[in-house]
Amino acid sequence: MYHKRGMIGSPRKPDTKNQRRRSDGSQFYIVSGRKYFDKGLDELEEANNYEFSAGQRQAYKTVGGAPHLDGSYTIFGQVTSGMDVVDKIVQVETDRRWRPIEDIRIKRVRILK
């Protein structure tokens, strides 16, 4: 799995003691992302010593995502409908730590097997 648009993941805890990059059980993110060109993906590969597969490159160039997170963060789900809501959330006002000024609550989640 990789960080294409719509994927749901968990950041590692923001401390230096978390060398194994374990996920944070109380936070998650939804990738809204942007589309990339080959040059940008090449630069990320070089900077992060990571090679994207052909499928990853295709997804990042067509649907977008957050390729800089690949190999470092845990993906555990995917938005299957409602990306329009995610796009609205991206537009809300945030503080200097990129947190929304007003909390945004999820009212309903459906887990698919």
UniProtKB/TrEMBL annotation:
GO terms for molecular function: peptidyl-prolyl cis-trans isomerase activity. Keywords: Isomerase, Rotamase. Its EC number is 5.2.1.8. Gene3D superfamilies: Cyclophilin-like. Residues 1-24 are annotated as: Disordered. It is an enzyme of class 5 (isomerase). Residues 12-24 have a biased composition (Basic and acidic residues). This is peptidylprolyl isomerase.
